[in-house]
Amino acid sequence: MMIDGKDLKIGDTIKVWWSPKRDTILSLEPYEGPLECLDGARVAHFAILETGMTIPADESYELINRP
């Protein structure tokens, strides 16, 4: 199932580009940066990729599991 970034929640597992191609969101915080095109974006921190990834509000993600 595809889901917009604005609808992702803590605990969601989504398809990602790093191995093993899936990761679970542990926290979400508002994006604070200079790019106006990322209005409404959030930064997700994952179980595997601890450095985080910017999640644009209107970008689609493949939802693998939602608790």
Largest sheet features: 6 strands, antiparallel
CATH class category: Mainly Beta
Structural class: mainly beta
Task: Give, in order, the helices and strands.
Answer: EEEEEE
**CATH A-level architecture:** Roll
Give the CA-CA distance, first to last residue.
14 Å
Sum up the overall morphology in one term. globular
| Average pLDDT | 95
Instruction: Compute the CA-based radius of gyration.
Output: 11 Å
What's the number of helices?
Answer: 0
State the domain count.
1
Strand content: 35-45%
The total of beta strands comes to 6
The strands making up the biggest β-sheet line up spatially as: 1-6-2-3-4-5
Q: Share of helix among residues?
A: under 10%
User: What are the segments in which pLDDT stays under 50 over at least 5 consecutive residues?
Assistant: none
CATH topology: SH3 type barrels
Overview features:
six-stranded antiparallel β-sheet; 0% helix; mainly beta; SH3 type barrels; 67 residues
Q: How is this structure best described in words?
A:
This protein is mostly beta strands and 67 residues long. The chain is globular. A six-stranded antiparallel sheet has the order 1-6-2-3-4-5, with no helix packed on it. The protein has strands at 2-4, 13-15, 22-30, 42-46, 53-55, 60-65. The chain has one domain (2-65): SH3 type barrels, CATH 2.30.30. A hairpin with a 6-residue loop joins β2 (13-15) and β3 (22-30). The protein has no helices and six strands.
